[in-house]
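TfoX-like protein (Pseudofulvimonas gallinarii), 130 aa
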Amino acid sequence: MTDSPDKMRNVGGKSAAWLRQVGIRTRSDLETHGAIGAFIKVKKAGFKPSLNLLYALAGALDDCHWQQLGSERREQLLAELAAQEEALGMTGKPKWGGPARPVTTIDGGDYQDGQGSDHDDDVTPDLRFD
């Protein structure tokens, strides 16, 4: 997470609003539900999250930028998401389209916050953490 207890890495205003609306307001809430559980709650609430939200939440829990998640980790997340959606009866072709597409990853030493990402990775003071 970031230095301030009031901000969560990778979560911008829109994502934070969705999370608040499904009852995820703290880091503890996110840890309880996990990245996949939180993503499914957002999706079941009628929002249309992209996989970037899933990666952002996983990165927040892993304390890294979402683009630093390796392809193996993204594939693991997608497999777990598909399994949970199937178990919940969320049938049909997933709107996210299946296997992970290549995403440019950034090594920790090469990453600098705020450089060149157009993802909703602004930090927001509205999502409080324990």
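The chain has four helices and no strands. The CA atoms of residues 75 and 100 lie 6 Å apart. ok done for today
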